[in-house]
Design goal:
Layout (H helix, E strand, L loop, with lengths): L2 H12 L7 E5 L27 H10 L4 E7 L7 E6 L3 H12 L4 E3 L6 E6 L13 H4 L3 E4 L3 E8 L10 E6 L10 H17 L18 H12 L8 H14 L3 H11 L15 H6 L8 H11 L8 H19 L5 H11 L5 H14 L5 H16 L6 H5 L6 E4 L3 E3 L1 E7 L5 H14 L3 E3 L2 E3 L6 E5 L4 H10 L8 E5 L6 H11 L3 E5 L19 H9 L8 E7 L10 H6 L2 E6 L3 H7 L3 E9 L7 E6 L5 E6 L12 H12 L4 E2 H6 L7 H13 L3 E7 L6 E6 L75 H15 L1
Parallel strand pairs: 11-17, 11-18, 14-15, 14-16, 16-17
Antiparallel strand pairs: 1-2, 2-7, 3-5, 3-6, 4-5, 4-8, 7-8, 9-10, 12-13, 18-19, 19-20, 20-21, 22-24, 23-24
Helix pairs in contact: 1-2, 6-8, 6-10, 7-8, 7-10, 12-13, 13-14, 22-24
């Protein structure tokens, strides 16, 4: 929008009368936070529940003139009974029939021929007995906006059929002298309200449920009254839609409640396409669980449209007042003290039967004045945090605290730490996570930077909310897990079960926890993935790991979006220590990895591992292997960074230990003494190098460093063959023997054992420095056997 048009829009907004609910309108095709694309009629999200004055709208337009290019107004009780007659076609016919009643009403025009909007007011006494309707409800060529928003000035996006070009809305008339709606218009609005009551709120031409054989309860009548005045919010309003559904479900979790929600949902014209293949509410409805959203949320939404419970009939208003009075009285009569409540709640957590424990928690919650067991669990968590007494610490207390940051797998999985792995469906996210679980459960060495590093064996806890029991069993069998493996699986997990999570960790003491998946374990969440609140449980896990429960590594599985990134708000990314993206190898990479491989890239790392890669392979015997993966430059096999060069020198010298001065004196390491010192610090912190002693050579003692390698692996050092290369590794990626150092620093190198011929190992995984080897001779297959195996492989990946 040009500067002159922006100034014209601001001038119009500033002269608008105070007292109505206005909204800045997103420009056409502007991508709002929800990921939807604005059609030029989408209002600012918060205007749906906050009354914005003209000055508020002007402020938004001044700040973001390219984002907001029009102004709209909400109809209904929020704007003193404003109603908009929106004529989409046949304006001349309507004028011929009702022309006299249209005179004197403010009118909004656009580039669309034979169309206009007329503004009227509905008398307050009629607010509860009228209803708006859409274009398709009458076929008369006009709709009536009541409770919805209408654009009145600014950029016009053009008609949906493309016949009317983009342009600008014009305005004629006085908004401070809006006439009362003509009787014929009020009659139509009353008629539509009457049809809703008569039909029970059923959806026309939709796959709705019939509850004609049921007697509607008072709660259903109250809900229906609230839904009459709560408007849909159009594009980008999934959170609003879900909250309405959850509020209904909290008190009416039956087919009757689903039908009421479905009837209300179908009235939003922005989502008419969603109904083409059935009722989109059914699947979401079945995922609802008890949560913080209650019927009070629905009442609050209705009160925003018609304050003072004017949306209820007099009889129903008395019913609600009586219920609220009873609740207040019951809460006042509660005699349980806080210490007693906490004591009894903790005792309930020791009950072995989950059903019995859930029942006891609900009974105690009601007895203590809480709405449900969820509120009582949150109270328990708050009490546990208070008992720790470490939320507020002086600097000396924090620095002197005995805290350890370790690695479950060196330079791969931090402990304590939270890691998210995301990828497209069928790409092997679960297989990748559970292959790591197999390494941890059995203490299988893991290949990091081309060499095997030790993995301390320990229990694994898998919290599943994404798959059925039979699917989990099949995947565990595909990965050849054994009954003796220290792995515990919990089905139907919910990320909001904070207290139960703490008790599970205390019981099983796992080193690794896998949550599969974030979406599958968030069924009871009131927020969609695009809202930052959706990430709240993940923040809780990260902040309390090692504080409220024993330190462990938490690996969260998440789904990818259409562009290959992870789904939902960036708050999910911010909450975790590392983000891993899993994908299929591209054409160039597949020449070395093979088609039966997946590449995992570290997209974010608080430990500075951004860009690192893992290679997951489906082997010829249909087992999975996972290893660190390093892509080499075609011209040189030498590590590029000082950190990698120091690591390779220490590994080549293993089992000898070297000092910082030894490494600095080696021309193949390069770098300054300070740089090598920092490199050693990083490698120690990542668990790839350890301090094994000190040397007294020089003015003061200095540390001796040794590479951390699996003691079960073969020593992969060979005598030098011919002239050594200038790099740290041969072209085949095998480390050469270390050069000699002067003096007596470090342990003396033993006579190296001659290595066997350089043949592929029978062990699975990527080769040193990312080279991928084929199967050993004893694993060779015939072409017919390989064809059968590859067919089975396709099933395993998918």
């Amino acid at each position: 929008m040009s500067q002159s048009k922006t100034q014209d829009l601001l001038a119009f907004v500033r002269q608008l009368p105070v007292g109505m609910a206005y909204a800045p309108i997103y420009a056409k095709k502007y991508a709002i936070q929800s990921g939807k694309i604005s059609k030029g009629k989408t209002p600012l999200e918060r205007s749906h529940h906050q009354v914005m004055a003209p000055s508020d709208v002007a402020l938004q337009i001044e700040r973001k003139p390219d984002v907001f290019q029009a102004v709209g107004v909400f109809t209904g009780g929020r704007s003193m009974g404003l109603v908009i007659l929106d004529v989409d076609r046949n304006l001349s016919r309507l004028k011929k029939k009702w022309g006299e009643s249209l005179e004197g009403a403010p009118v909004v025009t656009s580039t669309k021929a034979n169309a206009a909007k007329y503004l009227f007011r509905v008398p307050e006494a009629l607010w509860g007995s009228v209803k708006g309707f859409g274009l398709s409800d009458t076929g008369a060529g006009y709709e009536v906006l009541w409770g919805r928003q209408g654009v009145i000035y600014g950029a016009y996006p053009g008609s949906s059929d493309g016949k009317a070009p983009e342009g600008y809305y014009g305005f004629e008339g006085d908004l401070e002298a809006i006439p009362e709606a003509p009787e014929w218009l009020l009659a139509e609005m009353r008629d539509h309200a009457g049809k809703e009551i008569q039909d029970g709120g059923f959806i026309k031409n939709r796959r709705a449920l019939d509850f004609s054989d049921r007697d509607p309860a008072e709660v259903a009548e109250i809900i229906q009254s609230a839904l009459k005045v709560i408007p849909g919010q159009g594009a980008g309003s999934r959170d609003h839609w879900v909250k309405v559904g959850m509020a209904i479900h909290s008190e009416l979790p039956t087919d009757l409640g689903l039908t009421l929600w479905s009837a209300w949902s179908a009235e939003d014209p922005e989502f008419s396409q969603e109904w083409s293949e059935g009722n989109p509410c059914e699947e979401v409805w079945n995922s609802f669980r008890k949560g913080p959203v209650s019927l009070g949320t629905l009442f609050w939404m209705a009160d925003q449209q018609l304050p003072g419970r004017m949306w209820l009939s007099e009889d129903l208003r008395k019913v609600v007042e009586k219920v609220e009075a009873d609740n207040i009285l019951r809460i006042r009569q509660v005699q349980i003290s806080f210490p007693e409540l906490i004591k009894r709640a903790k005792a309930i957590q020791q009950i072995q039967n989950p059903a019995e424990a859930a029942h006891a928690m609900n009974v105690l919650a009601l007895e203590g004045g809480y709405r449900d067991a969820g509120a009582l669990e949150r109270l328990l968590i708050a009490q546990m945090q208070f008992e720790q007494q470490d939320d507020e610490m002086a600097m000396d207390s924090l620095l002197n605290k005995d805290l350890k940051f370790e690695y479950l797998i060196p330079d791969l999985l931090p402990c304590p730490g939270t890691v998210m792995i995301h990828g497209a469906g069928g790409d092997g996210k679960s297989m990748s996570a559970w292959t790591i679980a197999k390494h941890v459960a059995r203490g299988i060495p893991f290949s990091v930077r081309g060499d095997l590093v030790p993995v301390e064996a320990g229990p694994v806890l898998i919290l599943n909310g994404d798959q059925s029991e039979v699917q989990v069993q099949q995947q565990l069998r595909d990965l050849e897990f054994q009954p003796s493996d220290p792995v515990t699986v919990v089905m139907g997990w919910d990320l909001n079960w904070y207290y139960r999570f703490v008790k599970l960790i205390e019981k099983h003491q796992p080193k690794l926890v896998i949550i599969d998946s974030i979406t599958g374990c968030s069924r009871g969440s009131a927020f969609d993935e695009n809202k930052k609140e959706f990430a709240s449980p993940i923040y809780w896990l990260a902040n309390n790991n090692g504080r409220m429960f024993p330190a462990c590594t938490i690996l969260l599985i998440h789904h990818a979006n259409k562009t290959g990134g992870f789904r939902g708000s960036t708050a999910i990314r911010d909450a975790v220590d590392e983000v891993w993206g899993l994908r299929r190898p591209d054409k160039k990479q597949v020449e070395r990895t093979g088609y039966n491989a997946r590449i995992i890239t570290v997209e974010k790392s608080r430990a500075g591992r951004d860009g690192s890669k893992l290679l997951m392979k489906l082997e010829s015997d249909l087992t999975f292997s996972l290893a660190d993966y390093v892509e080499l430059d075609t011209d040189s096999a030498s590590p590029a960074s000082i950190v990698d060069r120091v690591l390779q020198r220490l590994r080549a010298a293993y089992p000898r230990s070297l000092s910082r001065s030894d490494l600095a004196a080696d021309a193949l390491c390069g770098g300054s003494v300070a740089a090598i010192g920092k490199a050693l610090q990083r490698l120690v912190s990542r668990g790839l190098v350890e301090v094994v002693g000190q040397t007294s050579t020089g003015a003061r003692p200095s540390n001796l460093y040794q590479a951390v390698l699996s003691r079960d692996m073969c020593v992969n050092k060979c005598p030098e063959l011919g002239k050594p290369s200038q790099g740290l590794e041969s072209k085949k990626g095998q480390p050469l023997s270390v050069s000699s150092f002067g003096g007596e620093t470090g342990a003396k190198e033993d006579t190296p054992t001659p290595c066997p011929d350089l043949l592929p190992s029978h062990t699975k995984g990527s080769g040193i420095k990312g080279q991928v080897f084929g199967p050993s001779p004893r694993e060779e297959r015939t072409s017919e056997e390989l064809d059968q195996l590859m067919q089975e492989a396709a099933r395993l990946w998918d």
